[in-house]
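FORM 12-B: Structure-to-Sequence Request
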């Protein structure tokens, strides 16, 4: 069965729309912080366009000085972005029907939000090119545009705590995590990751807490794997996945 391009494109936009709204305060704060460090709106937008990784961009802006400590900036960004290795490995299995160039392009534009929405969609139906075109470019442009806006009107965001904008990053990730909720077992994994991240943050300098949380979650998931589906349910799930359509 061939997927309808218009409906797939629309599904991508509708699925990512709440995340578009949720990251706006986050993008505005980043742009404002970059402006306060002396970066121009053009430089801020260029950083968002080329790096496109909010967590590592915040770390980079926090460490920014003149002259820029390139080695420290690169290492900090590497630590924060190591989570994308795990995320890419997870989503790559759902993109096997795509050409290598298409997979590589999608991985380049991968973000926490697009990864979560793509995983959610892949659990329900095979991924299509039109769905990803509705999901990814609009999120990317939204991030770049609003970091530039934040850099332009940065003085209005010198005290984001007053408006509660400082909680935006935390709220986004809580929402993404709960989107994968499958009962108490999921809460156990989240608790293990949270504990490992918090302890590492308290006792180890640098952004090692990002990988600590990811590794803790993986270890717990490996120790307590999910129960296999009964044969009939497994067959039904495989049949459902076999339907759906091409990547065109």
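FORM 12-B RESPONSE
SEQUENCE OUT:
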């Amino acid at each position: 069965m061939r997927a309808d391009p218009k409906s797939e494109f629309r599904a991508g936009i509708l699925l990512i729309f709440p995340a578009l709204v949720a990251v706006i305060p986050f993008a505005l704060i980043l742009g404002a912080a970059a402006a306060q460090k002396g970066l121009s709106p053009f430089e801020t937008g260029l950083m968002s366009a080329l790096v496109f990784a909010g967590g590592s961009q915040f770390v980079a802006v926090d460490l920014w000085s003149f002259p820029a400590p390139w080695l420290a900036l690169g290492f900090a960004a590497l630590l924060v972005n190591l989570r994308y290795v795990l995320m890419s490995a997870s989503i790559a299995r759902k993109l096997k029907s795509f050409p290598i160039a298409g997979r590589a392009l999608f991985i380049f534009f991968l973000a926490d939000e697009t990864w979560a929405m793509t995983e959610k969609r892949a659990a329900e139906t095979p991924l299509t090119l039109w769905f990803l075109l509705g999901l990814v470019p609009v999120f990317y442009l939204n991030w770049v545009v609003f970091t530039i806006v934040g850099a332009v009107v940065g003085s209005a965001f010198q005290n984001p705590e007053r408006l509660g904008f400082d909680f935006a990053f935390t709220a986004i990730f809580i929402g993404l995590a709960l989107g994968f909720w499958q009962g108490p077992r999921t809460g156990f994994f989240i608790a293990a990751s949270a504990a490992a991240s918090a302890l590492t943050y308290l006792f180890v300098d640098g952004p090692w807490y990002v990988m600590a949380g990811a590794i803790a979650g993986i270890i717990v998931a490996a120790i307590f794997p999910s129960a296999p589906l009964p044969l009939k349910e497994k067959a039904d799930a495989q049949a459902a996945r076999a339907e759906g359509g091409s990547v065109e």
